[in-house]
Amino acid sequence: MDLKKTTAPVNTVTYNKSKIEEPTGNIYEAITIIAKRASQINSEIKKELIEKLDEFATYNDSLEEVFENKEQIEVSKYYEKLPKPHALAVEEWLNDKIYFNRDSDSK
């Protein structure tokens, strides 16, 4: 997932309910699908952030020394400024980038 190319809003946005429910015909089903995708996105971002921060990890037994690493701070700030996972999921939903399958459709 390329987070730099997203156009998801960083702030709160009001969406048209009918556009959200249009693909499924049911707002609750649409929200459930979006929520599951948001959870997946959150896991991907968390994994990526942990991998990047592990590069800066120093392992010592002394708790007295705390090192400030400017690069680590910049990485953290970058991830703080990203749109939230639910905003990314809603954007994907509205742009028809989420595939979903109903169990009743396959029977």
Automatic annotation (TrEMBL):
Pfam families: RNA_pol_Rpb6 (PF01192)
Entry-linked InterPro entries: Pol_omega/Rpo6/RPB6
Superkingdom per UniProt: Bacteria
Native species: Flavobacterium agricola
Identification of the protein by name: DNA-directed RNA polymerase subunit omega
Keyword Transcription belongs to the record: yes
Keywords: DNA-directed RNA polymerase, Transcription
A GO cellular component annotation in the UniProt record: DNA-directed RNA polymerase complex
